Amino acid sequence: MPDAINGTVENSLIIHGQKQTAGFACRAGRGNPEDFSKYSELKFIWSADSHPTASLTVSPDGEQHFTDEKIKLNCSGSSADWRIRRFTESKYKSDLSDCTSWGTMTGSSCTFSSLEYHDAVYWCESGSGEFSNAVNITLNTKTRPVLTVSPSWLSPGASVTLSCEVKPSSAGWRFYWYKAVPELYQNKYKYLLVPGSDDGTKDNYYKINDQKHTAGYACRAGRGNPELFTQFSEPKFVWSAVSHSAASLTLSPKKIKHYTVDEIRLTCSGPSILWKVRRFRQYYPSDISDCSVWGKMTGRTCTFSSRWYQKAVFWCESGSGKFSNAVNVTLHAPRAVLTVSPSWLSPKASITLSCQVEPPSTSWRFYWYKAVPDQSKYSYRYDPLHGTRKGTTKNSYVTQGEKHTAGYACRAGRGNPEIFTDYSKITLSWSADSHPAASLTVSPAREKLFTGDKIQLKCSGSSGVWRVRRFRQSSFNSDVSDCFSWGTMSGSSCTFSSRWQLTAVYWCESGSGRLSNAINITIHATPKAVLTVSPQWASPGASVTLSCEVKPSSPGWRFYWYKAVPELSNTYKYYSLPQGTHETPRDSYVVHDQKHTSRYACRAGWGVPQFFTNYSEPKIVWSADSHPAASLTVSPAREKLYIVDDIQLKCTGSSADWRVKRVRQSYDQSDVSDCSSWGTMTGSSCTFSSPQYPRAVYWCESGSGEFSNAVNVTLIHPPQPTLFVSPSWLSPGASVTLSCEVKPSSAGWRFYWYKAVPDLSKDNYRYDPLPDITGGTVENVYIVYGQKHTAGFSCRGGKGNPELFTEYSEPRFVWSADSHPAASLTVSPDREKLYIVDDIQLKCTGSSTDWRVRRIRQSYNHSDVSDCSSWGTMTGSSCSFSSLQYNVALYWCESESGEFSNAVNITVHLVQTPRLTVSPLWLSPGAVVTLRCEVEPQSAGRRFYWYKAVPDLSQIKFRYNLLPASVDGTVENSFVIHKQKHTAGYACIAGWENVEYSTNYSEPQFVWSADAHPAASLTMSPVREKLFTFDEVHLHCTGSSADWRVMRIAESSYSNCSVWGTMTGSLCTFSSRWLHKAVYWCESGSGEFSNAVNISIHLAPLLHLTVSPSWLIPGASVNLSCEVDPPSEGWMFYWYEAVPDLSRNDYRYELLPDNVNGTKQDSLVIHGQNHTAGYACRVGYGNPEFLSRYSEPKFVCSPASRPAASLSVSPDREQHFTSESVTLNCGGNSAEWRVKELRESGSSSFTDSCSASGAMNGSLCAFSSPQHYKAVFWCESESGELSNAVNITVQDEDLLLVSPVHPVTEGASVTLSCRLRGENKLSDVIFYHDDKLIQNDSRGELKISAVSQSDEGFYKCEHSGEVSPQSWMGVKAVLKKSSSSFPVMWAVGPLCGIVLLLLLLLLIRFIRLKGTSYFYDLVRPTKEPENDPKKDQSISYSLLNFKNTGNMRHYLEPDDSFVSSDVRVGAAGRSSLAASDAAVYSEVKSTSGY
Questions:
Q1: Is the pLDDT of residue 1415 over 50?
Q2: What is the model's pLDDT at position 254?
Q3: C-alpha distances in angstroms, 1358 versus 427, 471, 597, 1297, 1313?
Q4: Is-contact 134 123, C-beta < 8 A?
Q5: CB atoms within 10 A of CB 797
Q6: Once rounded to an integer, what is the mean pLDDT over residues 1394-1414?
């Protein structure tokens, strides 16, 4: 080595500045001539840094490699000759060798691989003698990755996560995922790549979705090129309880709990003939094995049993490679449980032992034992009870004449050879009687034992070896333990104490196997003595009462009283009070003639030998009078002391040693401490101050044991003044009022007033007294006159002698916008509004060279005053700042000479998000689109950037791509786009160069095109001129993308289909309940916009059906009118009969005959209607047709009954009293009915069911009403029939007319009467018909013997001046049958035909004379439906069509309009009675407009 040619005396050498790998050797020499030793072995220092002329690289790169991996080491540098060496070091030797020994050297490269693990350092050595960098390479044995599967048990269809971990971990791995498929012939698994895993994954986890059945998985990892793979991982399983169609496992016996005595059968089923049953047990490591290892496989069934507890998962594997469902089986050991009754016995009593075994079985035999202590084995031996060696079939056994404590056990056995359960836990029967050979005594022998008591349990008897045991019963289990667990065993005695309450049974067990008597011991909580003193502050010579309470309280205590005398070792000595040496049975004691501060304590004793509580906490009775030998004085001697005061407590008296103590009371506890804890004790003085507000009693304690007087000291916070200035902004020369408020307020304050003058050297203010008031003022208000400029003020208060001053108040300012001659503030930019992007400069000018700029910000309940240096940059007399957030503040200058400038109020506004406008909104293909971006402020340095809003379905909104011509932004706030063809979205942002600030993106705005994009197109269904609320609208996206979303914009707010509809693939379906107008379009996953569609949703019409008349005369016409709201043109009207549907408690709607295509007119006439019926209408529009909802059903009421449905009333009258029960009875051919009612309410009517006002029972509806009402009732049957309708009036008047509720048949007799509430019959009743008096005599009834049509009308009655309401009595006409109807029809028929023909000829002639001719088009009969339930009441309808064949130039232009007629008769050829029940529908419609 250089500098070591001549050697060194020292045997160490330091080499400085070594950078690269190097090898070193040494040798030693001595003598003259010098004799040298051999060279030492070479030693190397390694460096990872390459040498400029020698470098080593490794392929594949990295330090961690595997044993069968081919590794190439390459040397590079300035030499042509190289060798590669390696150094390995083991525990016993190191090895240095060349590549030729362990690899192949080719030129400058060495290639090698190894089958064994090793760790070595490799380097290159060049022909020119240089070392390369060194590389540490570790060859690991080929690893086996570890696969984890989550969850291990799955719910069907859940996802399964596979995680593959390679140890040791390193980068560059790819992970391959396999399904483990059983190969039963080779007794192993084959591994099939999971679909989608052919090329591996970078992530070491893989998710499999929708897994339903049990499956096995494996993984392996590979890296490098060519790729080197790890071994396959151990297969891991995900279990499913769901059977596979090709593989199913059943368990027998089927029960919740299985036991080791059970024989378990596992049976595989499925289409395979070859099966294997496997089991998995979680141990370390986990255990997977076949049935052949632990059971017997016969065909497809595995049978096994086990003598030991085990828990395992079992499943089947088929020859076709399928897994069955998995079954979790736990085998429990049978358990015997013994109960003993009674647990405490009286001498010679019998004891019943009961032994329960799980699982229960009739084949068990029971064995009974006495548990005899065996101390040599520290256990028990089990001696069979007399006569039970062969066991008993019964699970109970009775022992007779037992006198002493004894332990018992049982067990059960079954089978041949017999298998036994374990012995049950030992259960003892306790006896309090001592055994002659074993007895237990307790000391202290006291009725009560307490925590803290030292308890001795002593065993005596004939044995020399003993143990003491105890038994404790807790809520959930019992605990038997020996003395050494909870005490100390010494010979035959056990000594223990307990810190906790407990109850236990104790007994002795001797070496000869005897059990002593048992003793039940309860250890109670140690009572605590608590002393109270009254009064706490005593006047000299007063009596003091001491009260001692024991907690927890109990009788039998005696009390002891003590004086607590201080010991300066921070403890007390306790001296018994006079007459307190012996106990007192009472818990109070009176100390007479108390003069000075004293401290007392108490304690209590109980039982024999006596147990004492601890001394109570000593309590003090305070006295303000000094003791001759101990006195406390306080300085400063002031009425009030403040937390800023230095307080001195001085002890004086006959002692040289003192301590000062204090007690603080807080909530429910007190704190007693020495001066050393909260102050400084120096000799007899304690000095302290407190930053808090403590209130405490202080006293001295002397070395001779005396207490001083006690002093109550309260430290209060010095009042903090607050200054108020009014006004805050002044007009020049105005007066300023200063108000100084001291809190807490009190009398005696003087107030001092100051001007706050800036002091830039101290970065604060100095306070100069205002002129003429240096002595302060009594008033807390002071007025400053003639104030012109901004100024600061302060105040403080003073009180007492010597005077104590408060702190100065925070300075308060009065602001002026007027500049001071010596100080002025100007703001740049000089603009009404300033923004966060502005560079704001505040410049101070005036007579000073040194300035500071300040600001004040008001936030909620406090203000913040700070300098420019906190929020800006101060340069000379200028403060520059900008703010990236909104703020409002007041700014001013303060000069070195103490002047204030004018004040300026500045609000820094946020820059709003720019607003983009696009023109035009709808474009023609290739049109020019102009974008305009508006933002404030319009200041210098502003640039605009323009973006295309590209749909990004992953982010719900858009991504923004900078337009090519907008990379550097534009100075102008407008941008033109040429040749725009399709729908597109745009956005803009604005930026300011001076503050490197840019706004958010503007809301995207769109230019719409109705032309579809080649890659994105929107189609709409239905394609109709108008769409309505409740229409189901389909928007379908098509194009080159698989992912789509449909968007809409309405009233400047845009949202996607998921908010207002349902998106399914590329289809958006929605309907709307409200009127709206919006633009809709598609956005593709590839970022394209479709054509846009403008859709208006119109309000679906509300329909109001009117029926006239509401009550009909049989055979009369009924007019239906359907009103559309809102009214509009183009509707088709559809007419329906409302048929009762009792199953849905509603109606179904059946189109009236020949009304399939609807009518253009909004009215329809129905002829010949006889019975009660319900009707509805709805309207349609467009093609495809939109159909509205049905109108509310309306009813036409008829009194005529029909065989299939009729209604009767009980009582049978129209008028009823309130609270009177009325029963409506439905009759006919139906088994199920409902009663409906129609009531008028103001200008509207509504229907309701019987259940709303009464109770429906079968076909009967019963109701009563407490108030007046009038309604129409009818029945509806399950077959869809409506009965006759009846009018019923319930009234609260006292007089009513009794009249029939149904029409009276012509010729029949009828009797009308009058009733008073509570009376049946009346006399002297007057009757009226249509308001005309018809009877006035003593009779109480009106009898009509043969009713005629003239008797129909309104009736009422009068009694004693009171008139009843009137009721309608209807008369039903009798149709007279002709005995010769058939010949008459032959005669009348032709005659009618001739007359009709003549009339038609006259009509045609008349029309021709007018220039227009009409002719009758078609009359055809209706095909009669078979089995029609309304066959006997078929309704006829007519549709009259007249064709216009002439020319009416005065009224309309010539066209092909026509009026058609279609008359259909459904009851032709029936008798006149049947015909009278047939209704005729007729509609007259004209397509000519008239």
A1: no
A2: 87
A3: 98, 99, 105, 9, 10
A4: yes
A5: 26
A6: 52
**Cα separation of 109 and 103, whole Å?**
10
Of 517-521, 1329-1333, 1366-1370, 1465-1469, the least confident: 1465-1469
- What is the total residue count of the chain? 1490
> What beta strand segments (E) does 568-657 contain?
571-576, 588-594, 598-606, 611-612, 619-621, 630-635, 641-642, 647-653
| pTM of the entire predicted model | 0.40
Of 284, 255, 250, which is closest to residue 265 (Cα–Cα)?
250
- Average pLDDT of the chain to the nearest whole number: 84
**Strands (DSSP E) along 675-780, which ranges?**
680-682, 685-688, 695-702, 711-716, 720-726, 734-743, 750-759, 764-769
Closest CA to 1078 of 1058, 1107, 1053: 1053
pLDDT in tens, 584-606: 677 888 998 888 888 999 998 88
Tokens coding 1405: 């002639």
Strand ranges, E, within 887-1042? 887-895, 904-909, 915-919, 927-934, 942-951, 958-962, 974-980, 984-992, 997-998, 1005-1007, 1016-1021, 1027-1028, 1033-1039
Distance, in Å, from the CA atom of 700 to the CA atom of 674, rounded to the nearest integer, reads 10
How is residue 1307 written in tokens?
Answer: 């010729």
If 0-12 CB within 10 Å is exposed, 13-18 middle and 19+ buried, where does residue 1244 land? Answer: exposed
pLDDT reading at 514 higher than 80: yes
> What whole-number distance in Å separates Cα of residue 1038 and Cα of residue 235?
46
Whole-Å CA distances, 1348 to 871, 1304, 1310, 1370:
108, 9, 11, 10
Q: How many Å separate Cα 902 from the centre of its chain?
A: 57
Q: Are 1244 and 1219 in contact (CB under 8 A)?
A: no
Q: What is the pLDDT of residue 1080?
A: 94
Per-residue model confidence (pLDDT) at position 475: 66
Q: What angle do CA 1445, 1459, 1434 make, to 5 degrees?
A: 140
> For a pLDDT cut of 90, what percent of the chain falls above it?
42
pLDDT band at 495 (very low <50, low <70, confident <90, very high): very high
Region 746-770: mean pLDDT is 88
Q: Write out pLDDT tens, residues 1432-1489.
A: 443 433 333 333 333 333 322 333 333 333 333 333 333 333 333 333 344 434 333 3
CA separation for the pair 301, 298 (Å, rounded): 5
Residue 1176 C-alpha from the chain's centroid: 48
Nearest alpha carbon to residue 1059 among 955, 956, 950: 956
What tokens were used for 880?
A: 């520059």
| Rounded distance between C-alpha atoms, residue 61 and residue 412, angstroms | 70
Strand locations in 375-516 (E): 379-384, 396-402, 406-414, 419-420, 427-429, 438-443, 449-450, 455-461, 466-473, 478-482, 488-490, 493-496, 502-510
What is the maximum alpha-carbon separation in the chain?
179
Token pair of 684, please?
Answer: 């007899």
112: buried, middle or exposed (CB in 10 Å: 19+, 13-18, 0-12)?
A: buried
Do the Cβ atoms of 846 and 826 come closer than 8 Å?
no
Closest-CA residue to 1428 (of 1466, 1474, 1481, 1471): 1466
Strands 834-835 and 904-909: parallel
HEC string of 1235-1251?
A: EEEEEEECCEEEEEEHH
Which residue, chain included where needed, has tokens 């040791």?
A: 168
**780-784, 798-802, 1001-1005: the lowest-pLDDT one:** 798-802
pLDDT in tens, 986-1004: 999 988 766 567 788 898 9
